[in-house]
Design goal:
Helix 2 (about 30-40) packs antiparallel against helix 4 (about 50-60), helix 4 (about 50-60) packs across helix 5 (about 65-85) and helix 8 (about 145-155) packs antiparallel against helix 10. A hairpin with a 2-residue loop joins strand 1 and strand 2 (about 185-190). The model is unreliable at about 175-190 (pLDDT under 50). This protein has helices spanning about 5-20, 30-40, 45-50, 50-60, 65-85, 90-125, 130-140, 145-155, 165-170, 195-210, 220-230, 235-260, 265-280; strands at about 175-180, 185-190. The chain folds into two domains: about 5-115, no CATH class; about 125-280, no CATH class. By secondary structure, the chain is mainly alpha-helical.
């Protein structure tokens, strides 16, 4: 667990004791709006004693939503503050620790932002290199942001050293491994995990995004989501997700090999393109 996660957990622990309902108000306790409110008010009493307009303006200045959103959040906060005063118990040291943990989280986020800014500058300064062009190709995959693309390419290094997707699977540690002992050979197949832990983490994130849905309910990647759901009919979910990771790795290899940005195509279209390319080569 990294330091940020540890401080977030500690912040949540303090709030569970003195302001439990506040944890349910925001999707994440570490959103800028949430942290700003806790920095400025912290205690349930401070929220209750502040004016409605003051809190609503604070919410609106830190969130991208409008007045209705801010008003709803204000009402939820006041209800949570009243509940905390009725059932909670707190000391001044609790509030000091909350501010301390927020400061640590803010400092950590500032450092990460600074590092990302330096990475962007470095990439921008080397736009003509094959390495940076490959970063942008991976970024074209919906589910791979800048950091994912840079991390993956940093782990790959020289892509031209890989002649097939299988070599990339093995390099990342995605190749299957069967547990064996003496004459016993297990039936449970897992990833060997001999290669890059960072690359596997990136591919895991890309796979999760690929099988997820947009806010309107549509699939972010209909082809991979259908593939995942079909796998789930006969395999455990984690095994199905591992299969999606292999697909994503295949896609990354194809993007870099063909030097073409990612485009979602159905298996039927893929087969058609394959046969056409095979015929063109034979001719």
């Amino acid at each position: 667990m990294d330091n940020r996660s540890a401080y977030v957990n500690k912040l949540q622990g303090e709030l569970r004791m003195i302001f439990p309902q506040y944890l349910k108000i925001f999707s994440k306790i570490t959103t800028n709006t949430s942290l700003t409110l806790l920095e400025n008010y912290t205690s349930p009493d401070a929220f209750l004693n502040a004016s409605e307009d003051e809190i609503i303006n604070s919410i609106r200045s830190t969130a991208r939503f409008g007045l209705t959103y801010a008003t709803n959040k204000y009402n939820a906060i006041i209800q949570a503050a009243n509940d905390a005063n009725s059932f909670g118990y707190s000391l001044s040291s609790n509030f000091k620790r909350i501010r301390l943990y927020i400061r640590f989280i803010r400092n950590y986020d500032d450092e990460i932002s600074s590092i990302l800014s330096d990475m962007h500058e470095l990439v921008d300064a080397n736009e003509t290199t094959d390495f940076v062009k490959q970063i942008h190709l991976i970024e074209s995959y919906k589910g791979a942001g800048f950091l994912s693309a840079v991390s993956l390419m940093s782990e790959i290094g020289d892509f031209f050293a890989f002649r097939s997707p299988k070599q990339l699977f093995a390099y990342f540690g995605l190749d299957p491994a069967v547990k064996q002992s003496g004459k016993f050979e297990g039936s449970k197949i897992t990833m060997s995990k001999r290669g890059s832990r960072i690359a596997r983490r990136v591919l895991h994130t890309m796979a999760l995004i690929s099988i997820s849905k947009n806010r309107d309910g549509s699939a972010k990647n209909p082809v991979l989501r259908d593939y995942y759901l079909k796998k789930c009919q006969s395999k455990p979910k984690m095994v199905a997700l591992g299969a999606v990771m292999h697909k994503v790795c295949n896609i990354v290899f194809a993007i870099l090999r063909d030097e073409k940005k990612f485009a979602i195509i159905t298996p039927e279209e893929h087969q058609k393109n394959y046969l056409k390319a095979k015929c063109d080569k034979a001719a």
